[in-house]
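Intended use. Records like the one below are meant for learning the mapping from a protein sequence to its folded structure. Do not use them to infer anything beyond what is encoded.
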Amino acid sequence: MLSAGRSGAPFSGVLLTRRSYPISFASSGAKDYLHVWRVMEVVPNRLLTLECQYGGYPGDSFVTFELTPSGEGTHLKLTHRGLETFPTDKPAFSRESGVKGWTYFICQSLKTFLDDQKK
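Structure written out for the chain above:
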């Protein structure tokens, strides 16, 4: 993760990278959708905003991950804005599909990754 600048000093403020990271994976059963994620905003240890597009389809959305201290842990708030800009005739772009995908990513995949980091 981003924790230090080139000099080794901690980042302060907002780091804007605006780099694209094309990622392809099966997100809706048998169909693969090219996910193009662009990092729009980073506030280390607090916030990450991604611009999300799907190759070959109209639409543009933004996913924001916000981290706040909570007791002895961290509270993660995920906000996905702009789903209405994607084709409404494709079930993969529905709110329900997004909820399933993000629930899997946060509650299973990310949890497994973080648990493995503790070992």
